[in-house]
Structures are given as structure tokens and as C-alpha cells.
Amino acid sequence: MCDTTEERCVASWCADDDWCTVTCTAHLIGKKWHPVIVHRLLERGPLGFNALGAEIDAISSTVLSSSLEELTANGLVDREIVNEKPVRVEYSLTEQGAALEPVIDAMDTWGRDYLRGSSCG
User: Fold this and answer.
1) HTH hxlR-type domain: from which residue to which, for each copy (predicted)?
2) 3 falls within a domain
3) Residue 92: partners with Cβ closer than 8 Å, 6 or more residues away
4) pLDDT band at residue 95, thresholds of 50, 70 and 90?
5) Residue 102 falls within a domain, yes or no?
6) What's the pTM?
7) Domain extent for 71
8) DSSP letter string over the chain?
């Protein structure tokens, strides 16, 4: 039986195959900017919206906002309102988000190796 997390993460066509876990991970961080956001939060710690946007200068504010909403809804990023003057919002990784560190590190290592060995690197 699927729990809420599984229903949110695993496509109905997966049908409990052994690769469903890979599908789940791809669903959660498979969008273009999701792993980059997780990577930056892993490296820099909690960041405000503008600071995070500055860390990923190629992302638009609209895409950053929607990506953060999705990552928050998926339980990977926490959104906290900081009651300072002025009031601001800070984003950090949840425990589940921080647990992606070996995945993000592996993606980084694999990407570096691939780009060194390919004709585009």
C-alpha cells in the first residue's frame, strides 16, 4: 500500500518495480534547477531568496520561486520567516534535503568526469 509520500513521488505506472526508487529521486530533484538549489544550500547553508538567486545567477526569480515552492512541498527545503527588520524569508534544507548530499556530490563528480572526457568539455 502506498503512503502519502510514495503517492506523491512514484508514478502510477511504476507498479512497485525495483527501479521505482530511482523514479522517485528523479521526480524530486530531476527538474533543471532543483539539484542546483540543493547544491547551493548544502554548500552555503541557509540563504535568503535574493542571496540564493545571486548564487545561481542564471535562474530567473520566477523559476527560483516556483522551484523553492516545489522543493518545500516535497519536504526537501524549509522556508522560515525571519522576524528581523526588515522581515525576510530564509531557505534551508530539511533533514531529507540534507540527506541528498551524497547524491548531489555524485552528480557533481560524474558531471566533471563526463565533461572532461567529452567533446564539449
Assistant:
1) 20-119
2) no
3) 41, 45, 46, 47, 77, 78, 80
4) very high
5) yes
6) 0.83
7) 31-117
8) ---HHHHHHS-GGGTT-TTHHHHHHHHHH-STTHHHHHHHHHHH-SEEHHHHHHHTTTS-HHHHHHHHHHHHHTTSEEEEEE-SSSPEEEEEE-HHHHTTHHHHHHHHHHHHHHHHHSTT-
Tell me: the pLDDT tens digits for 23-45?
888 888 889 999 999 999 999 99
Q: Indicate whether 91 belongs to any domain.
A: yes
Number of domains in the chain: 1
Q: How far apart are CA 42 and CA 46, in angstroms?
A: 9
For residue 101, count CB atoms less than 10 angstroms from its CB and return exposed for 0-12, middle for 13-18, buried for 19 or more. Answer: middle
